Structure of ABC transporter ATP-binding protein:
Amino acid sequence: MDAAVVAQHVSRTYGSGDLSVTALRDVSLTIERGTFTAVVGPSGSGKSTLVHCLAGLDSPNARPETVIQVGGQDITRMNDKKLTEFRREHVGFVFQAFNLVPVLTAQQNIELPLTLAGKKLDKQRLGAVAQALGITDRLEHRPDELSGGQQQRVAIARALITDPDVIIADEPTGALDTETTAQVLGLLADTVHNQGHTVVVVTHDSRVADYADRTIRVQDGRIVSDEFVKGGRVGSLHGSSAVTTHDDDVRSPGTPGRGNRLGASQPSIASLADEIRQRGGEL
């Protein structure tokens, strides 16, 4: 099996001297392509630091033996500009807070990583991703017109649209109710088992492990267990039941059912992308 992520001798220390805190202690692991990995552990265990280092959001301690390869490229040797560009094209992100741009429609939010990378939208791929996630009829709605579950589906679509080497999901179900959590986890599992994507979820929610092929437990900055269950205990959800949406979903603040209200004053996706680039930022 081909490796999506390879990490060797990764350590991370914050601060120095008596005030230093070691979050990771010489961690090594390999994540194969087409797998769903859950990284679990209590608060302060180092799980988020580990995944952030794997994604290039945090930098490990600089040591000659330290390597983090994503899609075969060592990100520890990249400068900030190169690393930002690499993340845009090779790593998809899903966050607890969704991180959608409120003035853009769902489709424009999904397109934004491509716009930032200067790439053209593949409408056929957009249609396939939207259909798989059950948001085809929500593409012209803005985030405040969507339920929490629908917003997270849009965030997942945004992560998938660039066909990244790995999708990193940081507490993706933390703001969702039990039913919506099961739907989102099922959708993430489907992207792995039906579409061949690689997903890594960091969470304190034990339910996530039920959907994962592999569960890595982190404690005190070290991997203390590594369990494989191919297909997960629950397995992926199939058919329309996995992408069913309900009108009575709890919506985010806003007026439900008002439809898309895009005015002439709305900033274009291109202008927003230019602004993000100028700030040196990303999604």
